[in-house]
């Protein structure tokens, strides 16, 4: 007696939904347009003159909230600088205080398409990149000041003074 058996294996091909988020065209509405599969990475160079410091932001979305995680490294007087988590904020997508997309739009005059530019700000999602590189010390200081004002709306505690120090009150 001969038995013949056909065993057909089935593959479980789980297809992940595709994301349509395009950094360049959707950034002004990133809170609404990004999906839970999207990540926006931001690199900000805080360095001016002899001061050297850098920040990495990771922006993700979960349901109706945006998560912003900040890591910071100050290397001016540090021979062995390390990245340090400064904050991990969760804000509703309807938040109206932190207007990072408005900051980007306000400063579009500093955008550059040069991939070799050291730059001050770089925003990346998948293969899309937006770069900013203000020229001259005056423009750089204005750009950094605007960034600090924008980021203090998200992180008003500013415990590590990464977004500048408060100006002291001068009494005459």
Provide tags for this entry.
single chain; 172 residues; alpha+beta; seven-stranded antiparallel sheet; 4 helices; 19% helix
What's the helix and strand layout?
Blueprint: H1 23-26, H2 30-33, E1 39-45, E2 53-62, E3 65-74, E4 84-92, H3 100-106, E5 111-112, E6 121-125, E7 128-132, H4 137-154
Describe what is shown at a glance.
This protein is of the alpha+beta class and 172 residues long.
How does this model look, in words?
The chain has a 7-stranded antiparallel beta sheet, with no helix packed on it. The protein has helices at about 25, 30-35, 100-105, 135-155; strands at about 40-45, 55-60, 65-75, 85-90, 110, 120-125, 130. β6 (about 120-125) and β7 (about 130) form a beta hairpin. The protein has one domain. With about 170 residues, it is an alpha+beta fold. Helix content is about 20%, strand content about 30%. It contains 4 helices and 7 strands; from the N terminus they run ααββββαβββα. The longest helix is centred in the C-terminal third of the chain and has 18 residues, at about 135-155. The mean pLDDT is about 90.
Mean model confidence by pLDDT: 88
Main-sheet strand order equals: 4-3-2-1-6-7-5
Largest sheet: 7 strands, antiparallel
Percentage of residues in helical conformation: 10-25%
**Structure summary, number of beta strands:** 7
Structural classification: alpha+beta
Task: Kindly report how far apart the N and C termini lie.
Answer: 109 Å
Order of H and E elements = HHEEEEHEEEH
> Any idea what the radius of gyration is?
22 Å
Query: Count the helices. How many?
Result: 4
- Which overall shape is indicated by the principal axes computed on the Cα atoms? globular
């Amino acid at each position: 007696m001969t038995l013949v058996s056909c065993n057909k294996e089935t593959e479980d091909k789980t297809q992940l939904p595709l994301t349509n988020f395009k950094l360049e065209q959707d950034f002004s509405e990133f809170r609404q347009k990004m999906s839970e599969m999207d990540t926006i990475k931001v690199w900000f160079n805080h360095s001016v003159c002899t001061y050297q410091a850098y920040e990495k932001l990771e922006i993700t979305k979960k349901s109706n909230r945006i998560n912003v995680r900040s890591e910071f490294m100050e290397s001016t007087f540090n021979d062995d600088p390390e990245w340090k988590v400064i904050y991990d904020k969760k804000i509703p997508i309807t938040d109206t205080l932190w207007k990072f997309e408005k900051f980007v739009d306000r400063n579009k005059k500093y955008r550059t398409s040069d991939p070799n530019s050291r730059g001050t700000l770089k925003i990346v999602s998948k293969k899309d990149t937006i770069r900013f590189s203000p020229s001259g010390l005056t423009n750089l200081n204005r750009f950094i000041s605007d960034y600090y004002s924008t980021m203090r709306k998200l992180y008003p505690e500013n415990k590590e003074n990464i977004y500048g120090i408060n100006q002291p009150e001068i009494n005459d």
